[in-house]
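I would like you to sit down with the pair of lines that follows and say whether tokens and residues agree.
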Amino acid sequence: MSSPEQPTTAQPTEDANRFTFKEEEGNTKVVFFPQGPGPLRAPPQGPSQLEYQGVEGNFTFSGDEIARQESPLGSLITVALEKSIDAGSLTFTLALPPVNMAGKKKQVFDTVAIKTKSFGTLPREGAKLIDTAICLDGVAEQVILPL
């Protein structure tokens, strides 16, 4: 008599640990690490890190410089590209959708980012915030992070 077959369970997949985004026109490139590179340790690992290259300059953000909020679009990752109480600010918000790696090391997807310009204390008619949407080509990867 043979024993009944055991149900097969799906093998768990690891989450991507590096997300790379490029604007089609090539003006913006972003690399996001949900847990920053650094020594191996039990979760939670190092703080998130976001590298931004765009017309505003090149920036690297980590830890408390990165705001993360869950939404129907996925995670909204926000950093401040310019900060000024008087002259206003410029933030960059990346919509990071959930990505099913499906057992692969790399998955390609599309998403959007929004640059939001505020005008601070300067008097201005009309909208107090101006949003500019950016279409991004995204790549989610499982990579070995440097120590």
About this structure: Residues 2-13 have pLDDT under 50 and may be disordered. The chain is about 0% helix and 50% strand. The radius of gyration is 19 Å. The beta strands are 18-23, 29-33, 49-54, 57-62, 67-71, 74-82, 90-96, 106-118, 129-141.
